């Protein structure tokens, strides 16, 4: 049986174009028939005269028994020339309109059209997380589909986001900004502007990212409507897909530790990873974003992670209704395990410990597959982490299999200034998983 994703790939994206062509053809036929019926008395004598002239002309060059055939050939040639002239005229008019609306789009329009059509035919992917982990994966996914929904944790209370929460009372924009830039199809100068962060000698602007300030300004212009502000920023950056906060409520991440103490705030919680007994949000009755639930229900694939286990990945699943929607979805669900451990949160965690930490936060589990990096960084790359209390995550695959998970192992690593996931490798494997 053909999967819904494959059916959509065949029909959905070209439906509007096919309808337009069909309407054009039906309209042309109706127009020609209307002309013939309404002006038959006027047109018929002209056609008879033209036919006579053409017969006289052709009879001077071909035998009389070949005149009829020659007339049909001439008619076919006129049809071809007329069709070509019509096509050329329509194409020229459309090109002029496109160039007037978008002066930068002067060349390769058909290539751009085919590429965007290909992306529109891509699978529906939902990615949940926060921090740099989620934005890294989105950079790869956007090359395969424009049907992406990033559901972003909104518990950040440090840095620029924390300051804007205190000053303006808005939802923390930092992780949302990173995802918007990751999915952007805008000029590099624009994305660089969004990511520019003022240095510490910039007075009251110190530490602020311009993108955070712009989102805050857009929220002001939208009279406090933060969702509208994110939509406007998405339009400015021309993103492929949509970026949604997990909840539009103001929430605080809290943790109960093994000694019974309760700590509040993402920044504080991140220092107690090894002592966390369980996590919860305050208020507990926060509402999930309705569009996030819709995207989860319609998804072909749901990705959880990578990112900080306790402060980026799990908080999304604590929003009431979110884990239940993921569990009930017919999509394939995969947890993308981190490549490196994180100081304070997961210093000694293996792949199975990362996985169980996420799976144990919700009843019955919310994913079946686990993507695990099995490649080993170079000694030079590992040496950069000496003294940082960060280590390569051990790929204990046998332990994961005993826990009942389906393993997707492979080399998903990138070694640049830091060791992290390679967005293109991960995206390619996720697309292959959907198609399997």
Radius of gyration: 30 Å
- Number of H/I helices: 19
User: What is the percentage of strand-forming residues?
Assistant: 5-15%
Number of domains: 2
User: Unreliable segments (pLDDT under 50, ≥5 consecutive)?
Assistant: none
Quickly give the CATH architecture of the largest domain: 3-Layer(aba) Sandwich
**CATH domain fold name of the largest domain:** Rossmann fold
Number of strands: 12
Percent of residues in helices comes to: 40-55%
CATH homologous group name of the largest domain: CofD-like domains
Q: Strands across the major sheet, in which order? A: 3-2-1-7-8-9-10
Main pleated sheet: 7 strands, parallel
Could you tell me the mean pLDDT?
A: 88
CATH class annotation of the largest domain: Alpha Beta
Distance N to C terminus:
13 Å
Name the overall outline: elongated
Structural class of the helices, strands and pairings? alpha/beta
Give an overview in words:
- The chain is α/β, with parallel strands linked by helices and 436 residues long.
- The chain has two domains: 4-112, no CATH class; 118-435, CofD-like domains (Rossmann fold, 3-Layer(aba) Sandwich).
- Helix content is 51%, strand content 13%.
- It is built from 19 helices and twelve strands.
- The protein has helices at residues 4-11, 15-38, 40-59, 67-101, 109-120, 131-141, 159-168, 174-182, 188-195, 210-221, 226-237, 266-269, 290-298, 309-318, 322-328, 351-359, 379-383, 397-402, 423-435; strands at residues 125-129, 148-152, 242-245, 252-257, 262-264, 276-282, 301-304, 332-336, 369-373, 406-410, 413-415, 419-421.
- A seven-stranded parallel sheet has the order 3-2-1-7-8-9-10, sandwiched between helices. Strands 5-4-6 form a three-stranded antiparallel sheet. Strands 11-12 form a two-stranded antiparallel ribbon.
- Helix 3 (40-59) packs across helix 4 (67-101) and helix 6 (131-141) crosses helix 19.
- The longest helix is centred in the N-terminal third of the chain and has 35 residues, at 67-101.
